[in-house]
Amino acid sequence: MKKIIVLLPVYLLCVTIFAQTNVDSWKITADSINPSNYYGVTVANGMIGIVSAAEPFKVKDVVLAGAYDTYGRGMVSNFLRSFNLLNMQMSIDGQQVDKNNISNMHQVLDMQHANFTTNFQYGAKADVSYTYYSLRQLPFTVLMTVTITAKEPITIGAASVMEAPDALRDVENYYNQIDRPHVLISLLTSSAKSPTGKLLLCASNSFMFDEPHGKEPSIIHEMWDNNMHLMKFSKTLKAGETYTFSIVGSSITSAHDADPLNEAQRLTIFAKLQGRKRLIAFHDKAWDDLWKSDITITGNPQDQQDVHSMLYHLYSFVREGTDLSPSPMGLSGLGYNGHVFWDADLWMFPAILVLHPEMAKSMIEYRFQRLAAAKQNAFEHGYKGAMFPWESAATGVEETPVWALSGPFEHHITACVGIAAWQYYEVTQDKVWLKERGWPLLKAVAEFWSSRVERNGPGHFDIKDVVAADEWAENVDNDAFTNAAAKAVLQYATTAAGIVGEKADDDWAFVAKNIPILHFEDGVTKEHATYNGEGIKQADVNLLAYPLKEITEPAQIKKDLEYYSARVPDAGTPAMTQGIFALLYARLGDGAKAYHWFKDAYIPNLNPPFRVIAETKGGTNPYFATGAGGIIQSVLMGFGGLNITEKGITQIPSVLPKQWKKLTITGVGPEKKTFTVQ
Predict the structure, then answer these.
(1) pLDDT in tens, 212-231
(2) Which of 263, 391, 447, 615 is catalytic?
(3) Which of 567, 582, 609 is the C-terminal boundary of a domain?
């Protein structure tokens, strides 16, 4: 109870700072832009992410999924900044438009159709607005549309600026025009090598005009230096005239295509010839389809907007039909080097799986395609089967910097991969996938754990020397989550073998029965062998109730909840920790405590002006997609009572907080079912 009293003022402060008078469930509006306290929000399509900036016509980052090279932090693979192909310069009557000569600047994130709009006034001369999209239907293509309304006669100058990030080398710039009877295509193109030369990164863009061919503005190309060039045009407008033009561009690397330089140009031409209206219509339709799987909260507009924001970011960071999986910060920047952790498998995956199995399939395909590397990792450590790396990037080898002990010791990641594989089968009931993909993964994971345990007598198949799921506990023995997760995947592999007609190793079930779960004398589940009540960073023991179902008795779940929720400090803990508390309290029927932890999971983590979630309370490293995944699970599986079982998705009793009148979850599972709680 003491913790609740301490934390409530934090909620009130944050709500005061961020609350909007009329909260829109789909749009987040920034009416006050403060560049010194501005955290960009991301528009992404699961492949290319565009991060907003506080200055007009600027983009902070362009990030491509799957593009890594070794440089910077830790001598391991890092995400690469791509060419900033949407940065622009604009002049009005010869004066450059910048943050110092504009007024009434507003920015709006439209989550329903995944676009970002900035509008402002340029003195008494013009109103300016621009909107950009990371086109959902075209994985490597972005679009920006600019509209100027002249209040008096003016001449505008607009330039598309292509600039290479500092880390890239051997930059080459190209400009060419393709003239056809019906269209003139001007292509501004750049290529560069990644820091070690492993990858070739390429980008190309083109102007799109509404004028008919032959009447569009003349385009001039300028080379500024080796790292930057631009193309520009000018246009004279009458008072009251509104003028619209667009920039369409594509960015791709040799990690995605064998010929990225030509392909970037081809993709840009492909998009340009479809025209602005068709591109936006296809994009909007793709997002309309995504939002057929939605969470609707009746009775609390701010909670609804926040949940939409979390879902929007998860949808933005994952794409169907790939073998890619999101990092903790998704495509919002270079956080955590863009590496893939248990964050993807245990925290983001279940939320996406329930609402979009086809997108979750990409995430588990990421692990399957890197199974050989995980087997080599196990071999190098003296184990059998597959040992998945704590931090994974392009190839699936261990990418954790050597100073972080989680690399060689945080072994529960291997169980998390197996859990995700089994959950995918449970939700989809796809036996063909299970035989071809799921079974090989589960078999290799089970082989790892049967070789990883130390056999010290019946009931004492210890798992020693691990970094716990609670990462403040390093090099401990018999961590609760690690042990229970190992038991679970050994059982899943045994069951999967029977389904696909394979012979399970009898040792798997034997090992599972002999892995201990420790307890204090009063019956509280003990986090690890030497745990003595210290503060915890992440939920560990509480994960045994969900998702592992190792602990099923409500009295035991409650006892563990009350003990460990009192050991979470007021700072330094990630959002999904409290998300698990919220989920379990909702299932236990305590709506008030569930709602307290739901709000505590993210309200203190929000950053302005778009309520982006940081990893920790007061943190400054958004967007934390892991936390969003954990909180969305608290809504789906906690308040919503959804339950992933061997027979698919079912619903168990749960409660709503008094602040919500009704919860509706649509588009659930392959059958796209609807579930409600009220």
Answers:
(1) 887 889 999 999 888 899 99
(2) 615
(3) 567
